[in-house]
Amino acid sequence: MTAPLDPIAEARRQWLRRWPEHAEHMAAITSVMRVQQILLGEVERALKPYGLTFASYEALVLLHFSRAGRLPLGKMGERLMVHPTSITNTIDRLQAAGLVRRVPDPADRRRVLAEISERGHKVAVEATEVLNGISFGLGALSEQDAVRLSGLLRGIRRAAGDFGPEVADPWAGPAG
After folding, report:
1. Does residue 26 surpass a pLDDT of 80?
2. What is the per-residue pLDDT across 94-145, written as a single tens digit (0 to 9) for each?
3. CB neighbourhood size of 169 (10 A)
4. What gap in Å lies between CA 90 and CA 34, rounded to an integer?
5. From 37, 92, 107, 154, which residue has the greatest number of CB atoms within 10 Å?
């Protein structure tokens, strides 16, 4: 069902009347939040047959990409930029599904690693094929527009401290 008007455009119009200096930022954040809802819904529908949420998919793929197929939970939380409790809960669900297991770290037996199972590798590959097939929900954007969007959002992430100015921009090419 299509709305008879664009609610974000209407909110922007109201902001322009009251707070014109903030209207564009309000419209941008509202648009980003709405698109996040749309994308998450589409991606999670695609992952549902695998019993995965996007958060569990990200954790599974991180393990799939790791050299040894295992990582400390703390490092996973850092790389996925989530709270330690969130990664623990995610690994709990993946372990219950037989996609990962917890193993002691051979270098430090006090530390626990999450290790992907053979079934986990298979699911990671299959789920990725499905998400690639729907362009991760961004099929309405050209590749060039996706690059531009990533660049715009990267500026916000840098300002928030996700990484420092010394980190090269992977979208800028060899000189960037």
Report:
1. yes
2. 999 999 999 999 889 889 999 999 999 999 999 999 999 999 999 999 999 9
3. 13
4. 25
5. 154
Both tokens assigned to 122: 């298979």
DSSP 54-97: HHHHHHHHHHHHSSSSEEEHHHHHHHHT--HHHHHHHHHHHHHT
Considering Cα of 9, then 15, then 20, then 21, what sign does the dihedral take?
A: negative
Q: Which are the contacts of 128, defined by CB distance < 8 A and separation ≥ 6?
A: 61
What the block records as the tokens of 126 is: 């299959």
* CA–CA distance, 72 with 54 (Å, rounded to integer): 20
